[in-house]
Amino acid sequence: MSGNQGKPSILAGAGRGRVIDDAAALRLLEDQKHLFADWPSVKASLETGTSIQGRDRDILDALVELDARLDLVTYTQTAKRLLQDATNKVNPLEGWSPSVPQGDLLEAHSEQWRAMERLGLREVGACAFVLVAGGLGERLGYDGIKVSLPTESTTGTCYLELYIKTILAFERRTGNTLPLCLMLSKDTDVATRSLLKDNNNFGMRADQISFVVQAGVPALSNQEAHFVPDNNSILCKPHGHGDVHSLLAQSGLPKKWLNRGLKRVFFFQDTNAFALRTLLPALGSAASRSLDVCSTCVERRAGEAMGALCLLKKGTQQLLKNVEYNQLEPLLLSTTGQGDVETPSPYPGNTNQLIISLSGEHGYVATLERTGGRVPEFVNPKFNANRTFKKPARLECMMQDYPQLLQEGSCVGFVTLSRRAVREYAPVKNSPESAIDKVKQGLDAHCASSGEADFYALHGDFLRCGRDVVIGGKEPGVYRGLSVEMPPRIVLSPSFALIEDDIISKVKGVTVHRGATLIVEGEGSVELEDVVVEEGAALRISTVKGVALRVLGLTVKNDGYRVEAPGVTKAEAIRGFRIVKRDETHLKFEEPGSYAVAPLDLSSDDEEEEAPRMSPLILGAAAVLAVFLMMRYRKIS
Ligand code: UGB
Q: pLDDT-derived band of residue 80, with 50, 70 and 90 as boundaries?
């Protein structure tokens, strides 16, 4: 893998008065002579050590900067070899035969799932978090940074806020301050840092958050690995999320985390709102099996843009590997004669959420020290009919190829998470147009509107862990041409509940009808008993730290929130709708203390009396006071 490990560039001083006589340097520049407006003059300046000016000098400077960072000789050698293979349709996994690996399978709502959640909650206090967020949302058709996208439009909480709020909830449950590292790129760096700054890091301390920034690698226009001029410089493209390992190795952060007693690192991606919710059962599974690396998987569909975990064998060699979605078909065709055609696929689907142990001989720290975190590279050129490139390619690498750096004796595994109501994985990757194509192929849409519907479906299914919970039906809708069934819009903050046990202990007899909205937000502890949110109505419960609230026997009827045509924001445009608050019942508690909401239903059977009725709420408030006084009396007594 490329990387110059800080060695000076063999091109240093080129065009600036230094004689370049290093054969490798001259060959490298000769190979890229198409970049220069006047190669003969450049060549002369290299041989004589004269300085040149203008664009060609800028190109030389750009090559020097790239070589100092990447070692361009190795980069172009690797590129030529891989591009040759790609052009000749050589299957990089030639000779490897795939079989279905054995791993843990956890079903939501099962005792085994809850047991793993409990263990995960104990272990999460020793976890560091790494979010790879360097990718731009090209496929999504969204020009902003993906982590600023709302996970749902009811509260508008964006991905980065949700991730940070969940880590802070882990902290409150474990008492440990936990680090978050973001891998950014030149495309996402500035915007992500200002999103955090503008929102006061969403409540996280600044010293908890660190950044590593990936730089691009030269784009390649053909199989000779010719670079592409870009004005007075060289066109670079992202090198892939695999950079995270070499950048963390250079940062020294993993060692610091290990020295302060942390045990594992959790790697996750930018637009899967379920990522940190699925962490706990997966972490329990990884810890219970002392895995050095654990991949989190879900059931996979044929042809899905999701890698598949395969146990690959070649002679005596054996490897548990994520076979990426562009490689799976040729591998299966060449070995089983059948392509990637089965749904569900026998091979677990890689959600690219990795749990890696920090310590030990096969731990992350030792492995990074030994390998520099340089995971294998690949190329994925797109060809025209005449085998020329449709668009420039580049060397890429993937974070899930980290296990290939491990040595004999390491323990690599996976856990498949399954939930009947909704798949434990709802990335937002596709524009509405490409989502429509995916659905036509029988695949999940994985776009903003379906991601939002899945979010509500998961929270509704989570709420069902409580006794006698009823979640109303879905409302069909068509958004930007895509049919999406919208469940009741339930948003449960991570501090309300993290694991099924939390719901079981806090929720009983709750009904959220079709088209209704239930929001439980804030850091207080909330219990719900016999609460009904009528069709289309909205109940919002907001508490601050130190609030203990019981909501008892409450029926909510109001105009609620409505799904309406999108407004002007890009986030609404890619969704095809917006949510508008018409009315809500908002129980807001901003002072620490114990509270209960229990409206007395004075509506007696003899309705015809038409007695002047005091609004239930006033009565309710009186009840609150009464209960409050009683509890204070009890507390005092
Ligand atoms: N990313 C970076 O930070 N830097 C980069 O250079 C590129 C990406 P994509 P991809 O979710 O189902 C992955 O583009 O790579 C970040 C797995 O490989 O969304 O096509 C980017 O910001 C695949 O096996 O996905 O596919 C984002 O957070 C499967 O798991 C993340 O990397 C697939 O994700 C992923 O980038 C999936």
A: very high
Over the range 31-55, which residues count as b (16 or more CB within 10 Å of their CB) and which as e? bbeebbeeeeebbebbeeeeebeeb
426 lines ligand 1 (CB under 6 A): no
User: What digits encode the pLDDT tens for the residues 189-199?
Assistant: 999 999 999 99
What does the pLDDT look like over 401-440, one tens digit per residue? 999 999 999 999 999 999 999 999 999 999 999 999 999 9
439 contact partners, CB below 8 Å, separation of at least 6 = 445, 482, 483
Q: Predicted confidence band at 611 (pLDDT cuts at 50, 70, 90)?
A: very low
The residue whose C-alpha atom lies closest to atom 32 belonging to ligand 1 is 241
Tokens of 231: 């004005």
Judge whether 552 and 575 are in contact, CB under 8 Å: no
Closest C-alpha to 400, from 380, 382, 418, 378: 378
Q: Which region, left, alpha or beta, applies to residue 470 given φ > 0 means left and ψ of -120 to 50 means alpha?
A: beta
Going from the Cα of 7 to the center of ligand 1, the distance in angstroms, rounded, reads 30
Ligand 1 pocket check for 449: Cβ under 6 Å: no
Q: How far does residue 306's CA lie from ligand 1's centre (Å)?
A: 9
Ligand 1 atom closest to residue 427's alpha carbon, by position in its atom list: 11
**Is 183 a pocket residue for ligand 1 (Cβ < 6 Å)?**
yes
Task: Answer yes or no: is pLDDT of 148 > 50.
Answer: yes
Which stretches of 278-384 are assigned E, i.e. beta strand? 293-298, 308-314, 317-323, 349-357
Q: Which atom of ligand 1 is nearest to the CA of 322?
A: 24
**Which residues are registered as beta bridge partners of 561?**
581
Whether 427 lines ligand 1, by a CB cut-off of 6 Å, is yes
Contact residues for 251 (Cβ-Cβ < 8 A; gap 6+): 181, 210, 212
Q: The whole model's pTM is what?
A: 0.92
Query: Are 509 and 467 within 8 A, CB to CB?
Result: yes
- The minimum-distance atom of ligand 1 relative to the CA of 240 is 6
Write the CA distances from 569 to 270, 334, 368, 489, integer angstroms.
Answer: 20, 47, 43, 21
Q: CA of 331: how far to CAs of 85, 95, 345, in Å?
A: 15, 9, 14
| Residue 525 beta carbon below 6 angstroms from any ligand 1 atom | no
> Six-digit token pair at 486?
């919208």
Pseudo-torsion of CA 30, 31, 35, 36, nearest 10°? 10
**Neighbouring C-alpha atoms within 13 Å toward the C-beta of 385:** 0
Please give the Cα distance from 305 to 299 (Å, whole number). Answer: 13
Res 77 pLDDT > 60: yes
Give nearest CA residue, ligand 1 atom 6.
240
| pLDDT range class, residue 610, cuts 50, 70, 90 | very low
What are the C-alpha distances in Å from 121 to residues 72, 164, 174? 45, 16, 8
CB of residue 306 inside a 6 A radius of ligand 1? yes
pLDDT at 139: 82
Please work out whether the CB of residue 184 comes within 6 Å of at least one atom of ligand 1.
Answer: no
Reported confidence tier of residue 3, pLDDT bands at 50, 70, 90? low
Q: 501 versus 21: which is more confidently predicted?
A: 501
From 138, 140, 212, 352, the mutation candidate for ligand 1 (largest count of ligand atoms within 8 A of CB) is 352
Rounded CA-CA distance 328/306 in Å is 10
Question: Which residue pairs from 16-21 have beta carbons closer than 8 angstroms and sit at least 24 positions apart in sequence?
Answer: 16/51, 16/57, 16/60, 17/49, 17/50, 17/51, 18/49, 19/46, 19/47, 19/48, 19/49, 20/46, 20/47, 20/49, 21/47
CA 623, CA 554: separation in Å to the nearest integer? 12
